[in-house]
Design brief:
Structural class: mainly alpha
Helix content: over 70%
Number of helices: 10
Number of strands: 0
Shape: elongated
């Protein structure tokens, strides 16, 4: 007599998804801690054979990616297996939902103090994200449109270098007065607008008096130096934006690969129909 398989009408098992998520995070954490331990063990300051920072960074990225794929595959498999679904589509969906929950939890961990407490790759990722954001912000503040006070602080070293070049024989007192005023004028010149021309005229007067040259020559020197500063700031913004863009693209690819891994785990973890029929038939026979 053929055994009739009666399925639970509920198609989503949240308990299985939570279990898969827990497994994903814990296995990922363990593998990343193992990678950190192995990586630090290869560093020997007294030896020339230690891997370079670039090599360590590449190896860490590869290890992080591989360990994430392994953890997500196991989590997707566990979620699908524990859910008891017997259709491959349901198993894949359980894996993908596990991937989504694990991704949300991971993002929460790396964006809070828990990332530093957990350490390892999560803490490193959190630090890297913060540094990237600060890098773009710092670079953007150095070009037109940034906050004047922030730009003044950032151009101060440039003002010192500029004055040392155009007025090497000026007295310390004159240099001090000039650097303070120029540090407030240069941001206005960089930002443009109505005050830029007045700021440029006053800065030209300061340089002309301090260097003992004509206003025309002082204005030319100042214009050339400010143009070089603007080009450097723009290049810094482009570099920072390019780095963040690359990081975003690679993160997208890593997340996509993680989704594929959990979907594959969910597909593998789907219970075969004959296994489920055998289990149900055994229970009916026992009854």
């Amino acid at each position: 007599m053929e055994t009739e398989v009666i399925m639970d009408p509920r198609r989503v098992s949240w308990g299985a998804i939570v279990a898969g998520t827990v497994l994903t995070i814990v296995i990922g954490l363990l593998l990343n801690l193992l990678g950190v331990g192995i990586g630090l063990a290869t560093i020997d300051p007294a030896s020339d054979g230690s891997p370079s920072a670039g090599t360590l960074g590449t190896a860490a990225a590869i290890w992080w990616l591989v360990s994430g794929v392994i953890a997500l595959f196991v989590g997707g498999y566990a979620a699908s297996r524990l859910s008891g679904v017997w259709e491959n589509g349901d198993g894949i969906l359980h894996g993908l939902i596990t991937w989504g929950v694990a991704s949300i939890v991971t993002v929460y961990l790396v964006s809070t103090t828990l990332g530093g407490i957990m350490g390892g790759a999560y803490g490193t990722l959190s630090t890297a994200m913060g540094m990237a954001g600060r890098g773009v912000s710092a670079a953007a503040d150095a070009v037109p449109g940034g906050a004047a006070s922030d730009v003044a602080n950032r151009v101060q070293p440039w003002v010192d270098q500029f004055l040392a070049q155009v007025a090497p024989n000026a007295t310390t007192e004159d240099i001090t007065r000039a650097r303070q005023e120029l540090a407030g004028l240069i941001p206005n010149i960089l930002q443009g607008g109505q005050t830029a021309e007045q700021a440029a005229q006053r800065a030209t007067e300061i340089v002309s008096t301090l260097a003992g040259v004509s206003p025309e020559e002082a204005g030319q020197r100042l214009e050339t130096a400010v143009a070089a500063l603007r080009d450097q700031a723009t290049a810094a913004v482009d570099t920072a934006a390019g780095a963040v863009s690359s990081a975003a693209i690679w993160s997208f690819l890593a997340l996509l690969l993680g989704a594929v891994a959990t979907a594959a785990g969910g597909w593998v973890g789907t219970r075969p129909r004959d296994e489920l029929a055998t289990a149900v038939g055994g229970r009916h026979h026992a009854a």
